[in-house]
Amino acid sequence: MSEAPKTDHAYDGIEEYDNPLPGWWKWLFIATIVFAPFYWVYYHGGAEGRSVEDQFGIALAENTRLQFAEIGDLQPDTATVAKFMGKDSWVKVGKSVFRANCISCHGREGEGKVGPNLTDDSYKNVKTLGDIAKVINNGAGNGAMPKWSHRLHVNEVVMVSAFVASLRGTNAEGGRPPEGNKIAAWPEPPPEEEVEDEKEKS
Questions:
Q1: Prediction pTM value
Q2: Distance CA 109, CA 172 (A)
Q3: How many Cβ atoms sit within 10 Å of the Cβ of residue 131?
Q4: Class of the CATH-defined domain 52-201
Q5: Per-residue pLDDT tens digits for 140-190
Q6: 15 in the Ramachandran plot: left (φ > 0), alpha (ψ -120 to 50) or beta?
Q7: Cα three-residue angle 157-159-165, rounded to 5 degrees
Q8: pLDDT (tens digit per residue) in 64-92
Q9: What is the rounded distance in angstroms from the CA atom of residue 91 to the CA atom of residue 97?
Q10: Could you tell me which residues come within 8 angstroms of residue 104 by beta carbon, excluding any fewer than 6 positions away?
């Protein structure tokens, strides 16, 4: 039997050993409580660029710029968008561009809010895959869809076009009803080997 001291507490015959927490643990706990308000004010007090989300966005943007330097400036046409539709890492870049700039009109999942639903098979201003980049660059609907050519890098336009194209047929829940006309299916992305060959030639 243990000879450790016991408290005066007893519940249905169950006794409790008197083993208080170490002093260092108590002071560490108190220190975290004291530290928390200063942490919140510094990182979440509204100062631009301090939050973890802001710092991640800055790091992601810098990393994207480095990657763009490797691939050069792309052409926002059907062949290029189709090629990058087959590269998941770049589609994710397009997703981040979409989430940063497009969800207020098209919804977080592309389901459509003010702007049309991007997850069905009907399109108002698009007939070919390359038209997605044209709409992003030049706008549409007499300004209802603003032009983004002066706000986004040409490579960002290609990536977000690839992401928007990938939303087709996902039919997000709660989406706006179809608008425009159904169009032909997107062309298949070129095989990975062909993409690598083109990269080596360039």
A1: 0.67
A2: 7
A3: 17
A4: mainly alpha
A5: 988 889 999 999 999 999 999 999 999 999 999 998 999 999 999 998 877
A6: beta
A7: 100
A8: 778 888 889 999 999 999 999 988 889 98
A9: 10
A10: 113, 114
